[in-house]
Structure formats: C-alpha cells, structure tokens
Amino acid sequence: MASETKTWRATVLTLFPEMFPGPLGVSLAGRALAAGLWALETRDIRDSATDRHRSVDDTPAGGGPGMVLRADVLAAAVDAAGVAPDRPRLLMSPRGRPLTQSRVMELAAGPGPLVVCGRFEGVDQRVIEARGLEEISVGDYVLSGGEIAAMALLDACVRLLPGVMGSAESGSDESFSDCLLEYPQYTRPQAFEGQSIPEILISGDHAKVAAWRLAEAEALTKVRRPDLWAVRSSQKRPKNTTDG
Ligand code: SAH
Predict the structure, then answer these.
(1) Which of 158, 187, 217 is the last residue of a domain?
(2) pTM to 2 decimals?
(3) 144 CA → ligand 1 middle, Å
(4) pLDDT tens-digit profile of 126-147?
(5) So what's the pLDDT on residue 3?
(6) Does 95 contact ligand 1 (Cβ within 6 A)?
(7) What pLDDT, in 10s, does the model give residues 15-65?
(8) Whose CA is nearest to atom 2 of ligand 1?
(9) How many domains does the chain contain in total?
(10) What is the pLDDT of residue 229?
(11) I need a labelling partner for 60 at 20 to 30 A (CA). Which of 18, 105, 144, 223 fits?
C-alpha cells in the first residue's frame, strides 16, 4: 500500500518558523530527520495575512487583555497547507485534552499531523470548529506559544517511528506503557558515593530481574501516580471475576 511507504510528515503552522527544527534538529530526532525517516514542513501563518500590515491578530471581542489570532488568517493558513484529509489536525492548547503516550503512539502510527501553534491569548474559537482542529495540551501550565508544545509532541512521536530508536524494544518497557512508570535504572560504576547497584540486577537471573523491575514500577506508580495506578488496576481485573 502506498500509505505504508510514505514518510511520516509533520506540518507545523507557526508565527515563528525560525524556531524549527530547533531541538528536533539534533540527536535522535535530528539524525532521523537528516536520514529521511520523517519530514518536517514549517509554514509561516503570517504568509496568509491579507492586509497591508500583514496582521494576524486583533483585540479580543468583549474586551480583555492581549490579542487573538484571527480566524480568517489561520483558516487560510490551514487551507494553504493542503494537508490530506487522513492527517490529524491538531491545535496546541492548554484547554486541550492532555497528551498521553497512547495518543502519541496513535499519531506515530498514522501519516503525521498538521500542528497549529497558537500565540497571544490564543485563537478565534470559530476556526477551531470550522477546520476541525483537535486541541491538545502538554500540561496544566501556560506557555507563551504553541511551538515548544508542538516540539514536545513531535519529539515523542518521532522517537517511535520505525528505525529511529536503536532497539525496537526500547519503547515497550518505558514509562506509561501498561499505565506504569518505569522502574529505576542503574549503570556502572557499581559503587557510587557509597551506594551500590541492587544485587539482583547483577545476578544474571533474568526472571528475577523482570520480577524486581515490575515490583519497583508498581510501587513507584502507586505512590507517585495514583491516577495511573487506578487505570491500571481497573484494566488488570481478572476476566473470570464478576463485579456483582
Ligand atoms: N489565554 C490562553 C493561553 C494562551 S497561551 C488560555 O488561558 O488558555 C498562547 C498559546 O500557547 C496557545 O494558543 C497555545 O497554542 C500555546 N500553549 C500554551 N500553553 C500550552 C499548553 N499547556 N499546551 C499546549 N499549548 C499551549
């Protein structure tokens, strides 16, 4: 199928195209970009401005501080990007659904998204609806623009693309797979400031190592992320028990 051979592609709409590829141009993501394992297209929203001053924002209707990205300009920018209908259209937004590893995995498995980066006080509500933008948040805090949020999202996706990470397995054991945080990691030296690596990890007993890691991951998740633990517990309920 043609879609299987197509390169995963990110199209970013931003007022600051010079911020890209930025951190996505180095290390794992950068090497993968240079190797053609994914493609990045950055488009300047301002190119879709129509007036003499190339303005992209205006004051909020109803009053209040700051400026709002205009619906007509942003809609024109989305349309000009000409993304195929099967590609997700995302808007980075603190009001969006919090980004999760499972959504990242879905996005990485698809053709690659269009990502709109907001600025100022945000974007006119009408364009979100008119262009079917899915709002995604990277956490309960407010950034000054969507670019860093978009980079976080794209970085998380790109490392999952085929051929990007060294070992095909290095994604499967990580934090959030199976609603667990990752177990503690250790490496040489064996002794560090009076602390040694847990004995079991150098025992060579793979079954015991696996059991220890699972127990550590579970303990950590229970304490640090009761929300994840609750989801995991509800998923892991044995099939032969009944609720009643
Ligand atoms: N006034 C808005 C915040 C605007 S911040 C509000 O209170 O909700 C400006 C832009 O930064 C947003 O349009 C969005 O694109 C981006 N942004 C800020 N915080 C973000 C977050 N936590 N996740 C994703 N994008 C965010």
Answers:
(1) 158
(2) 0.94
(3) 7
(4) 999 999 999 999 999 999 999 9
(5) 45
(6) yes
(7) 999 999 999 999 999 999 999 999 999 999 999 999 999 999 999 999 999
(8) 121
(9) 2
(10) 97
(11) 18
Give domain status of residue 241, yes or no: no
89 and 37 housed in the same domain: yes
Amino acid at 218: E
Question: 146-158 and 101-109 are packed helices; what angle lies between their axes, rounded to 10 degrees?
Answer: 70
CATH number at residue 203: 1.10.1270.20
Closest CA to 38 of 24, 49, 52: 24
End position of a domain, from candidates 158, 192, 227: 158
pLDDT at residue 16, rounded to an integer: 98
Does residue 132 sit in the same domain as residue 12? Answer: yes
Q: Which of 99, 100, 143 to mutate to test the pocket of ligand 1 (most atoms within 8 A of CB)?
A: 143
Ligand 1 test: best mutation among 67, 69, 137, 142, most atoms within 8 Å of CB? 142
Determine, yes or no, domain membership for 79. yes
CB hemisphere CA count around 16 (13 angstroms):
15
Q: Does residue 102 fall inside a structural domain? A: yes
Give the helix/strand (H/E) hosting 31: helix 27-34
Residue 112: count of CB within 10 angstroms of its CB:
25
Domain range for 31 = 8-158
pLDDT of amino acid 173: 78
Distance in Å, CA 77 to ligand 1 centroid? 19
Task: Provide CB contacts within 8 A for 90, sequence distance 6+.
Answer: 113, 114, 115, 116, 133, 134, 135, 136, 153
Q: How far apart are the CA of 63 and the centre of ligand 1, in A?
A: 19
Considering the domain architecture, whether residues 50 and 118 belong to the same structural domain is answered as yes
**CATH no. for residue 124?**
3.40.1280.10
Q: For residue 142, give the ligand 1 atom closest to its CA.
A: 19
Q: Give the pLDDT score at 4.
A: 52
